[in-house]
Amino acid sequence: MKRLGVVLLFCGAGLFVVSIYFWLTGTDLSHGSGIRVQGTVTRLEESDFELQPHPKERVARFPIVEFQDAGGGSHEIRTNGASFPPEYAVGDKVNVVYRKNAPERGRIARFTEIYFEAIFLSVFSNLLFFFGAFVLGLISLPALLGRTKR
């Protein structure tokens, strides 16, 4: 059991470092070296998962966005998140941010698009870390609840 706690602590700490990397690269993309252009939603792609209870009627869709880079090259990107009902319609104009050397990895210029990986990994890594600490006994339930032994 102690080994499991140590593994969870180190996995949580390692994933937290990765989440910091994603946060910093997202910040650099949105506030630093990223190039902003306008793109157009060209189509909506159905997601692979089905929403219940009526999967035929309730299908989440990813917007596919086409944009031109500063050099005039055309690129197409798929966003990170599908939604139902669709958040965008075909023909909608959206702001896109990309790196000069990787326009094919551009993102819609929205907080959730740029920082999703960082937020997800940060939450998941903290859960692993604290569960590992709990398993090791570094954190006790009474201490978390504010109770002390008398």
Short description:
The protein has 150 residues and is of the alpha+beta class. The chain has one domain (2-144). Helices cover 40% and strands 26% of the residues.
Structural class: alpha+beta
Strand content is 25-35%
How big is the Rg?
Answer: 21 Å
Number of domains: 1
> Biggest sheet, open or closed, and with what strands and sense?
5 strands, antiparallel
Structural shape: elongated
Strand order of the largest sheet: 3-2-1-4-5
User: End-to-end distance, in Å?
Assistant: 28 Å
Share of helical residues:
40-55%
H and E order: HEEEEEHH
How confident overall, as mean pLDDT? 84
The tally of strands reads 5
Could you characterize the architecture of this molecule?
With 150 residues, this protein is an alpha+beta fold. It is 40% helix and 26% strand. It has one domain. The chain has a 5-stranded antiparallel β-sheet with strand order 3-2-1-4-5, with no helix packed on it. A hairpin with a 2-residue loop joins strand 4 and strand 5. Helix 1 runs antiparallel to helix 2. The longest helix is centred in the N-terminal third of the chain and has 30 residues. The radius of gyration is 21 Å and the shape is elongated.
